[in-house]
Structures are given as C-alpha cells and as structure tokens.
Amino acid sequence: MHCWSGSPDETQLFLDLGFYISFSGIVTFKNALQVQASAQMVPDERLLIETDCPFLSPVPRRGERRNQPAYVRYVAEQVASLRQVSVESIAAQTTANACQLFRLTIPESSLESEAVSATIGV
Fold first, then answer.
1. 1-24, pLDDT tens digit by residue?
2. Quick check: 45 pLDDT over 70?
3. Cα separations in angstroms, 33 against 50, 65, 70, 89, 112
4. What is the pTM of this model?
5. CA atoms within 13 A on the CB side of 119
6. 7-13 long-range Cβ contacts below 8 angstroms, 24+ apart
7. With contact defined as beta carbons under 8 Å apart, do 92 and 117 qualify?
8. N or C: which end of the chain has fewer CB within 10 A?
9. With helix as H, strand as E and coil as C, how does 82-106 read?
C-alpha cells in the first residue's frame, strides 16, 4: 500500500491480504496518530518506507516546496523511533523488503553500507 495513511484496522485488512505497507512523510506529522500506530504494527517483513516525492515532505522539512528522495531518512528515523529499533535496522529491513517485493538484486557488499548511508544521510 503506497503512501499509507490508514488506521490500524484498515492496515490489518491489507496485511491479511498479504500486502506490504509503505509509510511516507505523513508518519512524521504530529497529528498522524493512526498512521503512527499502523507503523508500529506492521510486521518487519511487510514494512516499506518512501518519500512520495515531490509531495508530503516529512517533518522537519514539512512546508518546503518539494519533497526529495534524501528526506526518506526522516521517515526512517520516525519509524525506527516508533518501533523502538535503530535507524540502521529499519534501513536494512526496508531495503530487503523492497528487493523482495520488486525482485531487485543488490550486491550483498553494497546492500548494508549503501542502503544505510542513503537512509541516514551519511
């Protein structure tokens, strides 16, 4: 589910159908409590993150004219905080999930270093 903004009950319906759930900058908005609750409940193996560029810039970039791929790090940071895990683990898990879903292959040596670096902005 692209750019997910549903409630936990709606989230569960799509999880029961075998869908992946992808969170965008919306998860960083202070009033997005339903979305944040959904981000906490999605199983690791079904979790994705995205920017939805050029829309929905995450906090602290909210209100800027154009969202950009580099801002996915803010989504990762928020999801990691909500799930009480490291940003690095969110980066690794969501990269692996994207590879699984979209049948992508990333060389193993690049997977960890490049995905984590891109997500956390180093």
1. 999 999 999 999 999 999 999 999
2. yes
3. 18, 24, 24, 23, 31
4. 0.86
5. 25
6. 7/34, 7/37, 7/38, 8/34, 8/37, 8/38, 8/41, 10/38, 11/38, 11/41, 11/42, 12/41
7. no
8. C
9. HHCCCHHHHHHHHHHHHHHHHCCCC
